[in-house]
Design goal:
- This protein is 70% helix and 7% strand.
- It is mainly α.
- A hairpin with a 2-residue loop joins strand 1 and strand 2.
- The protein has 13 helices and eight strands.
- Strands 1-2 form a two-stranded antiparallel ribbon.
C-alpha cells in the first residue's frame, strides 16, 4: 500500500512538473501569434519600419516558444502510457479522438504554415506571408480549443456511457461542448493574451528605462497598455462566469476556493485565512460579510455548500486550492490596475517621466505566467481526488509500475528540463534585451517587395 501511495505521489509530481513547464509555452505562443499578426498587418497598412523591426524580434521569440511548447507537450503524451495507463485505457475512447483532432486540425496547420512564416519571406509575396502568420495564429487557437475541450470533459464529463468501467462517447457534441468548456476556453485564451501583453509591456518599459529603442518601445507601450486594460476587464467578467459554473458543477472545488467548511447562506469573502484540514476550519480569517455568496450566487443570502458535506477523502487539498486561487485573482487585479494607470499615463504624456511605473511594469512581466500556473493549479488540484470528476479516482488511474521507476524518470525530467528550458529561456530573454533590429531601409508595402525578415539567431 505504501509503495502504491508513493508511486501515486511521484506520478502526480512528475505530471505536475512537466505540465507546469508545458502550459506556459502554449499560453505565450497563443498571444504572441496574434500579436505578430497585428504587427504585420500594421506594417502592411502603414509601411512603418518600427512594426517590421518589432515583428523581426518577436517572431524569433515565437519560434523558440513554439518549439519548446511542442517538445514539452510530446513528453506529456508519453506519460499517459507510462504512468497513467489505466486512465488512458478507461478514457481513451473519448479523449483519444479529441487529441487526434487537435493534431489533424491544428498542429498540421501550424507546422505547415510556420515554415512559410519563418522561412518563406523571400519566396512568397508579402500578403501570402501575412496569410501564413494569420493561419499560424488561428492554428494556436484551434489547438487550444481541442485541448480545453478534452480537459473540460475531465472536469464536467458529458455525452458518454460507462461500460465495464470504460468510457464510450454517445454524443460528440456533448463531449466537446461539455458544461465547463466555454468558460475554460474563454478564460484560457484571455489569460494567454494577457500574458503576452504583459511581457511586451515589460520589454518596452525595460528599453525606456535604458533609453534604447525608444520609438519601438513607445509603440509596444501604446499597443500593450490599453490592451491589458481591456483584456483584464474581460477576464474579470469571464472569471466570474467560470466561478458560477464551478459552483454548479464542482461544488467541492468551489468550497475549497472560498474556504467554506460549513454549508451556509450569506457566506463571507475571505481575503485572508489559514485553512486547516485537520481542524476542518480556518484560522486567522479576514473576511467581507456575505460577499462570497453575492459573487457566486448573485444573492446576499445565497447558499454555498461547505466542505464537510463531503467525506474527507473526497475533498480536494484545501490550502493549495484556496491560496492558488487568491494568487491568481490578486495578480489579475494588479494587471487591471497596471493597465488603467498605464493608459492614463499614455494619454497624459507622463509615461516616460514616471520611472517607478516603468519599473513596476518590468516587475509585472512574469505575472501572466504565474497567474496561468496558479489558475491551472486551482483547476487541477481542485478536481482531486478524481481524474474524471466524480467518476474515476486518481488512485485508480495510475499504471502498475514501481515508485523507483517513476522516481528515476522524474529525476531525469528535472535534469533535462532544467538544461533545455533554461537555455531556451535565456535565449529569449537575450533577444528581448537586445530589442528590435530595425533595418536602415525597409521596403514599403506599396513597392511590391517582400519584407526582409531575419529569423536566424
Amino acid at each position: 500500500m505504501a509503495e502504491s501511495l508513493d508511486m501515486l505521489l511521484l506520478a502526480r509530481l512528475q505530471f505536475a512538473f512537466t505540465i507546469s513547464f508545458h502550459i506556459i509555452f502554449p499560453a505565450f505562443s497563443i498571444g504572441l501569434a496574434s500579436y505578430l499578426v497585428m504587427l504585420e498587418a500594421l506594417w502592411l497598412k502603414t509601411g512603418r519600419d518600427t512594426y517590421m523591426g518589432l515583428y523581426r524580434m518577436w517572431v524569433k521569440v515565437f519560434a523558440v516558444t513554439f518549439g519548446m511548447g511542442v517538445v514539452s507537450g510530446l513528453v506529456m503524451s508519453y506519460q499517459f502510457g507510462t504512468n497513467w495507463s489505466l486512465f488512458s485505457e478507461q478514457t481513451g475512447n473519448v479523449l483519444g479522438p479529441l487529441l487526434g483532432y487537435e493534431v489533424l486540425t491544428a498542429f498540421f496547420l501550424e507546422a505547415s504554415f510556420l515554415g512559410i512564416m519563418l522561412f518563406g519571406v523571400n519566396r512568397v509575396g508579402r500578403y501570402m506571408h501575412f496569410i501564413a502568420t494569420t493561419v499560424v495564429a488561428i492554428g494556436t487557437l484551434i489547438s487550444a480549443f481541442w485541448i480545453l475541450a478534452a480537459n473540460s470533459w475531465m472536469h464536467t464529463p458529458a455525452g458518454y456511457e460507462l461500460r465495464d468501467g470504460v468510457f464510450y462517447a454517445t454524443d460528440w457534441l456533448e463531449v466537446i461542448f461539455n458544461p465547463s468548456f466555454p468558460y475554460r476556453f474563454v478564460h484560457m485564451v484571455l489569460a494567454a493574451y494577457l500574458t503576452t501583453s504583459l511581457v511586451v509591456a515589460a520589454v518596452a518599459a525595460f528599453h525606456l528605462l535604458r533609453g534604447t529603442h525608444r520609438e519601438a518601445a513607445r509603440t509596444m507601450m501604446f499597443m500593450a497598455l490599453p490592451f491589458i486594460t481591456i483584456v483584464a476587464t474581460l477576464q474579470v467578467i469571464a472569471g466570474h462566469e467560470h466561478g458560477v459554473n464551478v459552483h454548479e458543477y464542482q461544488p467541492a472545488k468551489l468550497a475549497a476556493m472560498e474556504g467554506v467548511w460549513e454549508t451556509e447562506r450569506g457566506a463571507p469573502l475571505l481575503l485572508f485565512a489559514l485553512p486547516s484540514e485537520r481542524d476542518e476550519r480556518n484560522h486567522l480569517e479576514v473576511k467581507v460579510p456575505k460577499m462570497a455568496s453575492l459573487v457566486v450566487t448573485g444573492e446576499l443570502d445565497g447558499e454555498i455548500r461547505g466542505l464537510k458535506e463531503w467525506p474527507a477523502d473526497e475533498r480536494p487539498p484545501v490550502a493549495i486550492v484556496f491560496w492558488s486561487f487568491r494568487v491568481m485573482v490578486g495578480l489579475g487585479l494588479l494587471m487591471l490596475g497596471l493597465g488603467l494607470v498605464g493608459s492614463w499615463l499614455l494619454k497624459t504624456g507622463r509615461l516616460e517621466s514616471w520611472r517607478w511605473f516603468l519599473r513596476a511594469t518590468v516587475a509585472m512581466g512574469p505575472s501572466g505566467f504565474i497567474a496561468v500556473l496558479t489558475g491551472w493549479i486551482t483547476a487541477e488540484v481542485g478536481r482531486q481526488p478524481y481524474t474524471v470528476y466524480g467518476l474515476l479516482r486518481t488512485a485508480d488511474s495510475v499504471s502498475p509500475v514501481t515508485a523507483g521507476a517513476v522516481g528515476m524518470s522524474l529525476i531525469v525530467f528535472i535534469f533535462v528540463y532544467g538544461v533545455v528550458f533554461s537555455a531556451g529561456t535565456y535565449y529569449m530573454l537575450r533577444l528581448m534585451a537586445q530589442g528590435p533590429d530595425t533595418p536602415e531601409e525597409s521596403p514599403a508595402p506599396a513597392d511590391g517587395n517582400s519584407p526582409q525578415l531575419a529569423t536566424e539567431g
